[in-house]
């Protein structure tokens, strides 16, 4: 009985399972996806993802070549090395520019201090308050400082890339037969000697003595000469009394050996007829070896050699007194030449050349030095003006640039002549 019940239940369960499976298959559409009921929200259907196409064989070969080719790897290494060298060079140039700039600033300050000291000593020497030796030392210090400044400033254009073209690369121009003049307004003027400088005659330099007329008149004053057992100092004091306007500054006088040591030399001078004071000084020089140098404050007396650039009494008297032409030349140099603008500069260059020639003929070194400084100032202004032009873009600038070049060549010739003249006087 019990076994019949179990079999009956088992059979019943099997029938129920088959019925439920058939019902599910009948309610499902084909593909196993249930249809969406009306009014229900949209549900995104899953989409099939396309697989990426495989790379072609050519692409693989190109990638491998760019990655592993030895020539490319060598070129890449050279590029990296070049970039490293470029960066290193940039750092070095930056350091050089900064160092040179600071050196120029310091040197300019030193030149300014030296110039002030020189000007102060010049005024004190005129008042006979200090020894002229101090003025000579200050002048030498100032000259060295200016030369060092010029040397430093000459290095800056090269660091900045403003290098002049070679003379062969410049266009040929009709120039002075003695020199090859050229003014590169991007830097400074330059000149090249074409002949032996000794073939160009330069007169003896002249010092602009502030009291030149007074000293000349005193030196030409005739005096009676009869000196016995008198020291050089006593003789000079007596000459100061006999020739008004004459003033001696005694730095040192020759001394001779004596029993108690050494004593000042005592020349014996006697002439039957009166002689100019200059002739008496010449006689003293021949007797004991003293030198007489004409200065702004009077006459310097020394037993040493004549200082470089100084003028003896003989040289001073050989010079001609200032003529009207020389006075006009100095007036142009001091009052007109420094005030000229671009429009008037070109028209006055012939006058400037004439003024320079006049000063050179009479040996007026100081006026030429001042004129040289002013002319170099004009060069700087010309260079600055040219840097403001754009001849490659503006037609009017082309014309002005050409005019500046023409003026520059004339200015360069004038500067070269003045420098050569001053250099000859300093030899």
What does this structure look like?
- The chain is an alpha+beta fold and 427 residues long.
- It is 58% helix and 10% strand.
- The chain has helices at 2-27, 57-68, 70-126, 132-159, 212-219, 232-242, 277-288, 313-318, 324-336, 342-361, 365-387, 395-425, and strands at 179-183, 189-193, 222-223, 226-227, 248-250, 255-258, 261-264, 269-270, 275-276, 291-295, 298-302, 311-312.
- The strands form 5 sheets. The protein has a 4-stranded mixed beta sheet. It has a two-stranded antiparallel sheet with strand order 1-2.
- A hairpin with a 2-residue loop joins strand 6 and strand 7 (261-264).
- Helix 9 packs antiparallel against helix 10.
- The longest helix is centred in the first third of the chain and has 57 residues, at 70-126.
- The chain starts with a helix and ends with a helix.
What is the topological layout?
Elements: H1 2-27, H2 57-68, H3 70-126, H4 132-159, E1 179-183, E2 189-193, H5 212-219, E3 222-223, E4 226-227, H6 232-242, E5 248-250, E6 255-258, E7 261-264, E8 269-270, E9 275-276, H7 277-288, E10 291-295, E11 298-302, E12 311-312, H8 313-318, H9 324-336, H10 342-361, H11 365-387, H12 395-425
Parallel strand pairs: 5-11
Antiparallel strand pairs: 1-2, 3-9, 4-8, 6-7, 10-11, 10-12
Helix pairs in contact: 3-4, 9-10, 10-11, 10-12, 11-12
The tally of beta strands, per DSSP, is 12
Q: Which residues form runs of ≥5 with pLDDT under 50?
A: 28-33, 163-202
Biggest sheet, in brief?
A: 4 strands, mixed
Distance between the termini: 155 Å
Secondary-structure element pattern, one letter each: HHHHEEHEEHEEEEEHEEEHHHHH
Mean pLDDT metric? 75
Structural class: alpha+beta
Helical segment count: 12
Q: Order the strands across the largest sheet as they lie in space.
A: 5-11-10-12
Helix content: 55-70%
């Amino acid at each position: 009985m019990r076994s019949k019940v179990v079999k009956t239940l088992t059979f019943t369960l099997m029938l129920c399972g088959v019925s439920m499976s058939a019902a599910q298959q009948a309610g499902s559409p084909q593909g196993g996806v249930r249809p969406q009921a009306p009014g229900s929200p949209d549900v995104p259907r899953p989409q099939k993802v396309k697989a990426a196409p495989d790379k072609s064989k050519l692409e693989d070969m190109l990638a491998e070549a760019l990655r592993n080719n030895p020539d490319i790897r060598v070129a890449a290494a050279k590029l990296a090395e070049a970039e490293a060298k470029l960066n290193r060079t940039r750092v070095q140039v930056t350091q050089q520019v900064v160092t040179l700039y600071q050196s120029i600033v310091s040197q300019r300050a030193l030149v300014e201090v030296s110039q002030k000291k020189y000007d102060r000593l010049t005024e004190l020497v005129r008042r006979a308050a200090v020894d002229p030796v101090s003025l000579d030392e200050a002048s030498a210090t100032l000259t060295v400082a200016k030369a060092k400044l010029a040397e430093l400033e000459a290095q800056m254009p090269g660091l900045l890339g403003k290098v002049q073209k070679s003379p062969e690369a410049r266009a040929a121009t009709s120039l002075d037969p003695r020199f090859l003049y050229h003014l590169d307004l991007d830097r400074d003027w330059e000149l090249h000697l074409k002949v032996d400088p000794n073939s160009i005659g330069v007169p003896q330099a002249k010092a602009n003595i502030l009291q030149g007329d007074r000293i000349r008149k005193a030196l030409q004053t005739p005096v009676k000469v009869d000196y016995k057992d008198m020291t050089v100092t006593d003789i000079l004091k007596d000459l100061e009394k006999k020739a008004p306007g004459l003033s001696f500054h005694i730095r040192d006088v020759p001394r001779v050996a004596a029993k108690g040591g050494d004593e000042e030399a005592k020349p014996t001078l006697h002439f039957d007829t009166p002689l100019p004071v200059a002739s008496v000084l010449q006689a003293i020089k021949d007797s004991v070896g003293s030198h007489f140098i004409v200065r702004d404050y009077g006459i310097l007396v020394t037993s040493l050699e004549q200082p470089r650039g100084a003028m003896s009494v003989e040289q001073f008297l050989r010079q001609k007194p200032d003529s009207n032409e020389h006075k006009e030349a100095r007036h142009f140099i001091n009052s007109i030449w420094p005030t000229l603008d671009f429009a008037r500069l070109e028209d006055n260059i012939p006058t400037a050349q004439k003024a320079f020639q006049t000063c050179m003929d009479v040996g007026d070194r100081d006026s030429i030095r001042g004129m040289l400084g002013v002319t170099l100032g004009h060069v700087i202004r010309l260079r600055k003006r040219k840097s403001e032009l754009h001849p490659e873009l503006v037609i009017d600038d082309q014309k002005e640039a050409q005019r500046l070049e023409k003026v520059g060549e004339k200015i360069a010739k004038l500067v070269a002549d003045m420098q050569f003249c001053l250099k000859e006087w300093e030899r």
